[in-house]
Design brief:
Blueprint: H1 2-8, H2 12-15, H3 28-38, E1 46-50, H4 56-68, E2 76-80, H5 81-87, H6 89-94, H7 108-121, E3 130-135, H8 142-154, E4 159-165, H9 173-176, E5 180-184, H10 202-213, E6 216-218, H11 220-230, H12 234-254, H13 259-263, E7 267-269, H14 271-281, H15 283-297, H16 300-311, H17 316-351, H18 356-387, H19 394-411
Parallel strand pairs: 1-4, 1-5, 2-3, 3-4, 6-7
Helix pairs in contact: 7-8, 10-12, 11-12, 11-14, 12-14, 15-16, 15-17, 15-19, 16-19, 17-18, 18-19
Length: 412
């Protein structure tokens, strides 16, 4: 009964996931390159890289459907590397495929390697080869990546390997050199496509398509808010839109406004609705922002309290990724403010051309100082990312990094 309900009311994220290459928005060049191989019913090993929510996983499923037809599930093995990296034996024990090879007396890495070798060597069903898809492949341990290089060479006739990642530099050069590398651009940066009006990016086209199918009226403010909070992640944007639609329906029902459904008019989603959903849904993002503020102020005790709460629900690597995203947001916001201030200064300079040289030098020095500060912060972040690879206590490295952030800011 539960499964029947789920199939009748799937999450919008899955309901509107692209089924074919033609349905993937914003990645026309990538799809065209892949389509050239599919016409010949073949495929090289692939390395797909780009930010989250830009269509990498959807492309893999579309490829499998195109190549294998009704047997696409039988010929595709999806490996969630983040789950394996975090849970190891627990992941192997509960996964439908890896559980067949589970052995308490063997290490998780040994079980994983054997399971991959076995699948790569299996005869494909009604096809020329199978596909193994490694999602978040940058989280695969180095020894597994090294063994994969040999497996790729040995089973190149019966299996193709697809690696998806946001950090291609974390994939060993020996694997990268054996793959066709395809870059996926951000959906909110794609402009002027032949499939949409000029100036309308792929993320907007997707949101408007979903809104039309669900009988929603999205205001310009709502669209802008969705783009801002999703940051190019289509899956996140659609999830926020779904939550906003539910929130709007519940609010109107509580106010006694049920006529619009009966009359068939579209439900209205404005910026206030989206912001209300985001405030309740993004508590982790808010806590990360508060922790960074406390780190910049040098408040060690508050930083430790934030870390304790965050590590109870997230891994250290996930927390670091959230910190990076927040720093990136602040960098872009600061840059936008700086550009705006420079434009105002130039206008004032043209108006009164008297006292300038000393002020100009000060402006350049301030800009250089500002860039050095962010450069040092991102350098400390990259060192922490490296240290977490083999850390027994990841929280210690995160705490050290955050305290160094504070010292950088005070020195600036």
């Amino acid at each position: 009964m539960h499964n029947a309900v789920e199939s009748c009311h799937p999450l919008w994220l899955e309901k509107y996931r692209p089924m074919r290459l033609e349905d993937i928005l914003g990645q026309e060049k990538v799809c065209e390159r892949v389509r050239a191989f599919l016409r010949r019913k073949t495929l090289p090993n692939l390395l797909l890289f780009g930010e989250r929510g830009v269509g990498k996983t959807s492309l893999v499923f579309a490829i499998a459907r195109e190549l294998f037809g009704d047997f696409w599930r039988e010929n595709l093995l999806r490996v969630e590397c983040s789950d394996f990296n975090e849970h190891r034996r627990e992941y192997l024990e509960r996964d439908a495929y890896f559980s067949k090879f589970y052995n308490e007396r063997k290490s998780a890495v040994e079980i994983f390697k054997r399971a991959i070798r076995e699948y790569a060597g299996l005869r494909p069903i009604n096809a020329s080869f199978r596909i193994i898809f490694f999602n978040n492949a940058d989280l695969l341990p180095t020894d597994i990546q090294q063994s994969l290089r040999r497996t790729m060479e040995r089973f190149n006739k019966t299996c193709r390997f697809i690696f998806s990642t946001t950090k291609p530099s974390a994939i060993l050069p020996a694997i990268r050199s054996r793959c066709l590398c395809l870059f996926f651009k951000r959906l909110d940066a794609e402009q002027g496509s032949s499939q949409g009006r000029k100036g309308e990016n792929a993320l907007r086209r997707l949101l408007l398509k979903v809104a039309k199918a669900e009988n929603l009226h999205l205001t310009e403010g709502a669209l802008s808010a969705l783009e801002e909070h999703a940051e190019g992640d289509a899956g996140l944007a659609v999830s926020i839109l779904e939550a906003s639609a539910s929130f709007a329906s519940a609010t109107r029902a509580s106010e006694g406004k049920k006529k619009e459904k009966e009359e068939g008019t579209a439900r209205r989603i404005d910026r206030d609705v989206v912001e209300a959903v985001v405030r309740s849904a993004f508590s982790q993002r808010r806590r990360i922002a508060e922790m960074l503020n406390d780190a910049f102020l040098g408040d060690t005790e508050k930083v430790r309290r934030h870390l304790k709460l965050l590590t109870a629900v997230q891994s250290e690597r996930e927390i670091l990724a959230e910190i990076h995203a927040e720093l990136r947001r602040r960098l872009l916001q600061a840059r936008e403010r700086q550009v705006s201030e420079m434009a105002v200064a130039k206008t004032a300079k043209r108006a009164e051309q008297g006292e300038q040289e000393g002020e100009g030098r000060e402006s350049v020095e301030r800009e250089e100082k500002w860039w050095r500060m962010f450069a040092n912060i991102f350098l400390y972040e990259s060192e922490t990312d490296f240290n977490l690879c083999n850390a027994l206590n990841g929280s210690m490295h995160l705490e050290e990094m955050l305290l160094r952030f504070g010292s950088v800011l005070r020195e600036s």
